[in-house]
Design brief:
Blueprint lengths: L3 E9 L4 H19 L4 E9 L2 E9 L6 H12 L14 E7 L3 H7 L13 E8 L8 H18 L6 E14 L2 E14 L5 H17 L12 E4 L9 H4 L2 E2 L4 H4 L20 H19 L4 E8 L8 E5 L8 H11 L4 H8 L32 H8 L2
Parallel strand pairs: 3-4, 7-8
Antiparallel strand pairs: 1-6, 2-3, 2-9, 5-10, 6-7, 10-11
Helix pairs in contact: 1-2, 4-5, 8-10, 8-11, 9-11
Length: 391
């Protein structure tokens, strides 16, 4: 009996309506943290035809010009023409911002930073595996890199018919836990009205798909791969004009592409006191360093918190049977190796900075060459883990 199976993950470009909303929300977080490192932000955005709505709870000592920030973000993404049905100059910007609830603040704020409580209850997961150099699952890694390349060839003017909205998807064949072959690629890109589907399909395969997949280290036969390029046949109407976008609606795209579990909490629009964001980053940091240290080939870390309580109510590691040391020893060592309180996470990962808008597209994890910003991707605890586990 064959142990071959397929696994699929997707990504979306920064011009996808949900990602536009994520980018706006994270731009608000960045603007506040850059001037007020202790600001509290829970910011939600909705974008639709000709309109962006920003709402939420913000407590800060600084001032942010929300409409200016929103328009700048939309311009940066590429919605610069009214013909797109949504653009930075003509869209309406509505905002409804209140202060953070005092009932929440009293559970988070403490006399000393070390006793800072979690900003909410919930469960968070981190994941790492040896499938790629970045220790990410192969399908989401390839989907992200294709989405990034699709945006890059739009921005550099290589194909003047491309517009900001787009999606990618990669199906990888596995033998057991090992990725071996590219089976299917899906790419949908918004485009102008004066280009043929034949031209789009040819140019996207040659200039976006093949350059990414040719270097992925898997079996990739361009003649045998299944391609679905703009499979509906037409994608002129796109972006917020065609699809209402909301903050936090791409949580699987943001994490591991469906590989491993997800606690359900979104990241964008939240300051690091919100453990939905910071503890998910910490769980990835733990998982990645454990795999890099040789503790296992594949690891998932679960953290869970109670609102107002500093220490996690549970910490758990699952190695899926790939551990090279006693899994119980891995579990018992984590609280000694890592400070997983909200303050410990924020301090060790240096999260009180305006760094989050760059995370809003192409994944929060496994970004090549981005350790200065994505501090949770650093392999800075490998030696400590090896020493603690006798590796």
């Amino acid at each position: 009996m064959s142990d071959k199976q397929l696994f699929t993950s997707e990504s979306v470009t920064e011009g996808h309506p949900d990602k536009v909303a994520d980018a706006i929300s994270d731009s608000v977080v960045d603007a506040i943290l850059s001037a007020d490192a202790n600001g509290r932000v829970a910011c939600e955005t909705m974008v639709t035809t000709g309109m962006a709505v920003v709402a939420g709870e913000i407590s800060t000592s600084t001032y942010v010009d929300i409409p200016k920030l929103v328009r700048g973000t939309i311009q940066r993404i590429g919605y610069t023409d009214a013909a797109y049905g949504f653009d930075y100059e003509t869209c309406a910007v509505l905002s409804s911002i209140d202060e953070q609830s005092g009932d929440i603040a009293m559970g988070v704020d403490r006399d000393s930073p070390e006793s800072q409580g979690a900003g909410d209850q919930g469960l968070m997961f981190g994941y790492a595996s040896r499938e790629t150099a970045e220790l990410m699952p192969m399908p989401i890694h390839l989907s992200h890199r294709m989405a990034e390349r699709l945006a890059a060839v739009r921005k550099d003017g290589s194909f003047d018919y491309l517009r900001p909205d787009g999606k990618t998807q990669v199906t990888v064949e596995y033998e057991g836990d090992r990725p071996v072959r590219i089976d299917t690629v899906v790419l949908s890109t918004q485009h102008g009205p004066d280009v043929s589907l034949e031209q789009i399909r040819k140019e996207m395969v040659e200039s976006v798909v093949k350059p990414v997949l040719a270097d992925c280290g898997l079996e990739f036969d361009p003649a045998k791969t299944n391609y679905h390029i703009n499979p509906t046949g037409r994608f002129v109407l796109g972006g917020p004009q065609a699809d209402c976008g909301l903050t936090g609606r791409k949580i699987i795209v943001d994490t591991y592409g469906g590989m491993g579990r997800h606690g359900g909490g979104a990241f964008s629009g939240k300051d690091p006191s919100k453990v939905d964001r910071s503890a998910s980053y910490a769980a990835r940091h733990v998982a990645k360093n454990l795999v890099a240290a040789g503790a296992a080939d594949r690891i998932e870390v679960q953290l869970a918190y109670a609102i107002g309580v500093a220490d996690p109510v549970s910490v758990r590691v699952d190695s899926f049977g790939t551990a090279h040391v006693d899994e119980a020893k891995i579990n018992s060592s984590l609280r000694e190796l890592f400070d997983l309180t909200p303050n410990g996470i924020i301090s060790s990962l240096d999260l009180r900075r305006g760094i989050f808008s760059v995370t809003s597209a192409y994944g929060h994890f496994g970004r090549p060459g981005s350790d200065d910003t994505f501090t949770w991707e650093r392999l800075n605890r490998v030696d400590d883990i090896k020493s603690a586990l006798g590796l």
